[in-house]
Design a protein that fits this description.
alpha/beta, Metallo-beta-lactamase, Chain A, 7-stranded mixed beta sheet, binds zinc ion
C-alpha cells in the first residue's frame, strides 16, 4: 500500500491512500487543479480514484469537492450528518447527490480491495471522523482535526504500517500569537486540534515494530513551524518500548504546499 500527503495543513488537506489497484483520497480541501497536479506527480489519474473519504465539513477539507465531482463523478463517503453538512456548503455548487454514500463510525466497509473504517473523533464539526484503510495485510491510519483522543481511538489507529497524525500547533506560539481569544480557546479545547506534544504522545502510543513512516500533518500556518513540530514530537517518543529502536520511524512533516515523499508499506 501507499500513503502520500498531497497537501496537509490549515490551508487545505488532501491525502492519498491506495493499493496497486485501488486509489482513495481522504478529503478534497484544495482546488481540483492542485489535487490533479499532485496526483499526476504520483502517476495516478483522477478518473482512477475509487472514492473520496470525507472527515468533516470544514472548508479546508472540502473546498475542491464540488468541482471534482462535476468533472470526475467520484463516489464520496462520509457519515450521514457530515454529508448533509457538506451538501449545504455554499462552495459545493450543484453536484449529483447519488455519489454520496453514508457510512457509520466504527463500521468497516469495502471499496474494491480495501477496507475502510471511520472512527469518531473530538472536533467542532457535526460528526467528525478519522480513517484507517487496510488491504487485509497492511494498514494505514490518518487522523487530524482532533482536540483530544482516548484509548478507543488509540486502539483503532494502532498496528499501522504508515500514518499521518496531527501536530497542529505550538501552544506557546498560539497563546502569544495574533488569534482572537475565542479562536485560541477553540483550538486549545477538547474539540479543537492536537498540539505538537499531544500529537507526539499519540504517536508514542501507536509506534510498533513494523511502521514504515509517519507524517506529522495539519500544521497551523500561524502557530507552528515544521522544525518545531518535528523536534517536539521526537521529544515525546521516549519511554515507548520501541523508542530505543535504532530506526527513527521515518518521521516527516507533511508539506503544506505540495506532495510529500510517498510512504510505501
Ligand atoms: Zn482542518
Ligand atoms: Zn476541522
Amino acid at each position: 500500500m501507499r500513503l502520500c500527503s498531497l497537501y496537509s495543513g490549515s490551508s487545505g488537506n488532501c491525502i492519498y491512500v491506495g493499493s496497486d489497484r485501488t486509489h482513495l483520497l481522504i478529503d478534497a480541501g484544495l482546488s481540483m487543479k492542485k489535487i490533479v497536479t499532485a496526483l499526476d506527480e504520483m502517476d495516478v489519474k483522477p478518473e482512477d480514484i475509487s472514492g473520496i473519504l470525507i472527515t468533516h465539513e470544514h472548508s479546508d477539507h472540502i473546498q475542491g469537492l464540488g468541482v471534482i465531482l462535476r468533472k470526475y463523478g467520484i463516489p464520496v463517503y462520509g457519515t450521514p450528518k457530515t454529508l448533509e453538512a457538506v451538501s449545504q456548503y455554499k462552495g459545493l455548487g450543484k453536484v449529483d447527490f447519488s455519489l454520496f454514500h453514508g457510512v457509520e463510525p466504527e463500521k468497516s466497509f469495502a471499496i474494491d480491495d480495501l477496507w475502510v473504517k471511520p472512527i469518531s473523533i473530538w472536533h467542532d464539526a457535526v460528526d467528525p471522523v478519522c480513517y484507517t484503510v487496510t488491504d487485509g495485510d497492511k494498514k494505514i491510519s490518518v487522523a487530524t482535526d482532533m482536540g483530544d483522543y482516548d484509548s478507543h481511538i488509540v486502539d483503532a489507529l494502532s498496528g499501522a504500517d504508515a500514518m499521518l497524525i496531527e501536530a497542529n500547533h505550538d501552544i506557546r506560539m498560539l497563546e502569544v500569537g495574533p488569534y482572537p481569544y475565542e479562536l485560541k480557546k477553540r483550538i486549545l479545547g477538547r474539540y479543537g486540534h492536537l498540539c505538537n506534544e499531544k500529537g507526539g504522545q499519540l504517536i508514542r502510543e501507536l509506534l510498533n515494530d513494523h511502521i514504515k513512516g509517519i507524517y506529522l500533518g495539519h500544521l497551523s500556518k500561524e502557530n507552528n513551524f515544521p522544525e518545531l513540530a518535528y523536534e517536539a514530537v521526537k521529544g515525546e517518543l521516549f519511554g515507548n518500548p520501541y523508542s530505543s529502536d535504532v530506526r527513527d520511524f521515518n518521521i516527516m512533516v507533511a508539506d503544506r504546499f505540495g506532495i510529500s515523499p510517498v510512504i510505501e508499506c
